[in-house]
Fold this sequence. Notes:
Blueprint: H1 6-11, H2 14-22, H3 26-37, H4 64-74, H5 80-89, H6 98-110
Amino acid sequence: xxxxxxxxxxxxxxxxxxxxKLSTQPQLWLEVAILGxxxxxxxxxxxxxxxxxxxxxxxxxxxxxDAIAWGQQKLPNMSLExxxxxxxxxxxxxxxxxxxxxxxxxxxxxxx
Length: 112
C-alpha cells in the first residue's frame, strides 16, 4: 500500500482523484498525478498540444488499424511497427484507447 501525506492528497483533484479511488491500479494514477505536480509538467511543451475539433478524429475509426493509419498520417517518419507498439502499450481509459491515442500522437509529433 502506498501512503502519501494528506497535503499531497489535497492536490489530487478532478479526474485523477476518481481514477485513484476507482482504479484497479491506483498507484499508476497516483504517479500520473504526482508527475503532473512537477514544474516540467507545466512547461510550454504541454501548451503545444493542439485542441481537438468539435468532431474528434476517432469518430470515423472502425478498427484499431484505422487509428494507427491516422497516426501514420500525422507521423509519416515513424514506422508502422513503432506506431503499433505505441498503440498496443496504451492503457484504455473508461474502456477506450482512441482519446489517449490522439493525445499520444500529438505528444510524439510535438517532441520531434
